[in-house]
TrEMBL record:
Subunit and interaction comment: Homooctamer.
EC assignment: 4.2.1.24
Gene: alaD
UniProt entry tagged with the keyword Repeat: no
Residues bound to Zn(2+): C121, C123, C131
MF-aspect GO terms: porphobilinogen synthase activity; zinc ion binding
UniProt organism field: Alkalihalophilus pseudofirmus (strain ATCC BAA-2126 / JCM 17055 / OF4) (Bacillus pseudofirmus)
Stored SUPFAM superfamilies: Aldolase (SSF51569)
GO biological process, one term: protoporphyrinogen IX biosynthetic process
Organism placement in taxonomy: Bacteria, Bacillati, Bacillota, Bacilli, Bacillales
Entry similarity comment: Belongs to the ALAD family.
Protein name: Delta-aminolevulinic acid dehydratase
UniProt binding sites for Mg(2+): E234
Active site per the UniProt annotation: K196, K249
Keyword S-adenosyl-L-methionine included in the entry's annotation: no
């Protein structure tokens, strides 16, 4: 063969130790946020049919789940509530003794070093399943803001370390920031669901949280999956209004958006690896079609490589275990 000059990139792939030396993107347990669903009652550990390995927990059992999370080195959880009473304005979302508020107090009391994030929305608590106040079949933006602020303040009072509003109402970050500041919670950060698409990947979550809308859909307030520039406008608005973290949801179909939001903002960006993305992998794995560990770790790496600083994922416990095994 005639000698031709070319680059030998394979030199840096020659062995596992060399590959690790030059690896650009790393996933750590510190990057993970684990979702937990809490519900009323006693002795409740209900596996979500569409989400293998994910459960609804009553407060008398949830501490065992939280202890496992902490033992795996996962530094934070996000709490979703499944109430036993719903009404038209989601009263139990901002009640002092709502299921989320009770869970936060208990978890922070028993695990003070764990960062507890409160999902701040109304959809799980309204009898119509929408994220806002309804009038004549329309979701009203501005009246909803007052209820979201009340919900955020009640969660902060319960001990939430971070407020994570997920409703996509215009002005929701400004309203919540004002409410928190007025109540004296100047140091409580807001992890805003800044870029939340009207996605087909949310079905299993709605099964877990009992939050499916009773009529219509959420396309008037969640984003069109076709839009990229709109995501940057939404993120910019939230930054101007006082957000401290920016969530992009879902993750896998929006890796390009994660990268752009990170590049344009410089803020901590959270990729929400949503329920549908989780359940597809679980189903494929249970059928023997994919290597679950390999495919999940590849997914996590892709989100970090796209620019995510943190990953909110139902895979978190498994990922943390696999990382420990690798070490």
């Amino acid at each position: 063969m005639k000698h031709v000059e070319f680059n030998r990139h394979r030199r840096l792939r020659i062995s596992d130790s060399v590959r690790r030396m030059v690896r650009e993107t790393h996933v750590r347990a510190d990057d993970l946020i684990y979702p937990i669903f809490v519900t009323e009652g006693e002795g409740v550990k209900n596996e979500v049919n569409s989400m293998p390995g994910v459960y609804q927990w009553s407060l008398d059992l949830v501490d065992a789940e939280v202890e496992e999370v902490a033992a795996l080195g996962i530094p934070s959880i996000i709490v979703f509530g499944v109430p036993d009473v719903k009404d038209g304005v989601g009263t139990s979302a901002y009640h002092d003794h709502g299921i989320v508020q009770k869970a936060i107090r208990q978890i922070k009391s028993n695990h003070p070093d764990l960062t507890v994030i409160a999902d701040t929305c109304l959809c799980q608590f309204t009898d119509h399943g929408h994220c806002g106040v309804i009038e004549d079949g329309k979701i009203l933006n501005d009246p909803t803001l007052d209820l979201l602020a009340k919900t955020a303040v009640s969660q902060a009072e319960a001990g939430a370390d971070i407020i994570a509003p997920s409703n996509m109402m215009d002005g929701f970050v400004a309203a919540i920031r004002h409410g928190l500041d007025e109540a004296g919670y100047h140091d409580v950060p807001i992890m805003a669901y800044s870029v939340k698409y009207a996605s087909a990947f949310y079905g299993p979550f709605r099964d877990a949280a009992h939050s499916s809308p009773k009529f219509g859909d959420r396309k008037t307030y969640q984003m069109d999956p076709a839009n990229r520039l709109e995501a940057l406008r939404e993120a910019q608005s939230d930054m101007e209004e006082g957000a401290d973290f920016l969530i992009v949801k879902p993750a896998l179909s929006y890796l390009d958006v994660i990268r752009e939001v990170k590049d344009h903002s410089g803020y901590p960006v959270v990729a929400y690896n949503v329920s549908g993305e989780y359940s597809m992998v679980k189903a494929a794995s249970q059928n023997g079609w994919v290597d679950e560990k390999a495919i999940v770790l590849e997914k996590m790496t892709s989100m970090k490589r796209a620019g995510a600083d943190l990953i909110l994922t139902y895979h978190a416990k498994d990922v943390a275990r696999w990382l420990q095994e690798t070490k």
